[in-house]
Amino acid sequence: MNSVQKMLSEKGKLIFIVHKFKFSFHKLLQNGQHRYKCTKRGCTDNLKVLENEDIVWTSSNLEHKHEADEENKIERQIISNNLKRKATENLCERPSKLLHSYLRENNTNAITTKDVTYIKHNIFQARASLRPNLPRSRQEVHDILKDMDVKTYEGNTFLQVNNAEKGILLFSTEDNLEFLSKSTTFYVDGTFSYCTQFFYQFFTIHVIKNNHYVPLVFTLLKDKKQESYADIFRIIDNYCLTYNNEFNLESIYVDFETGVSFQLFNRDANI
């Protein structure tokens, strides 16, 4: 009796496994049949497969001049390729959970601890291939974000300003900005040491709610010049007036060394 399995290759192509020998698609024949060649380099054995994926059996299917693959190697490849596909379809699921679910559903016991490491590595690689290349300059950061719809977990727009010319990225939500517009006191904080690459400063604006500091606006700046701070606060001022035409900032508390002149905020706030 002929032992046949099917699996998907790393590129998602159909592979037939006959008596532990693997066959991948070669070409479409004139009679409409599909020819599958042995994946071992130099081996000329092939399968002819009908459109419904039934195999046309001939003696040439079984005349390999090399050893068949080991069962655990085939099993590992089947699991790895299946989980790579699932991992790219469900990016939030942990690799270990995907693997445990597959093993439980398929009652597979032929893999080792080393196989598990191999499979998890392939899952991480598959997901990494979906991510864009890391930017090499601040301009590339702006360009990449321009093509991305940056949202929060709840589906709210999070990237409010992407200004490459001024080197400003401002992150917040409409709810945050509306709440900010109802506040009369801002607490400003900035860090230089832990700012992301290609930017000089990570700048945040907090308010107090229920006796807790709540960060509402997150910005990345290319420098710490007074002009950059003025740009940020003009943007914030416009947003606040949009949500609350009675917006009236009374005080600003600054928790870092800066040359900010908040008079450029167009408001008479105490610092």
Key phrases:
271 residues, alpha+beta, six-stranded antiparallel sheet, six-stranded mixed sheet, 30% helix, MULE transposase domain-containing protein
The number of distinct helices, counting runs of at least 4 residues, comes to 6
Q: Helix- and strand-based class?
A: alpha+beta
Bulk shape: elongated
Order of helices and strands: EEEEEEHHHHEEHEEEHE
Which regions have little confidence, pLDDT < 50, spanning 5+ residues?
261-266
Average pLDDT across residues? 84
Percent of residues in helices comes to: 25-40%
What's the total count of β strands?
A: 12
Strand content: 25-35%
From the alpha-carbon coordinates, what is the Rg to the nearest angstrom? 30 Å
Q: Report strand order across the widest sheet.
A: 1-2-3-4-5-6
Distance between the termini: 86 Å
Biggest pleated sheet: 6 strands, antiparallel
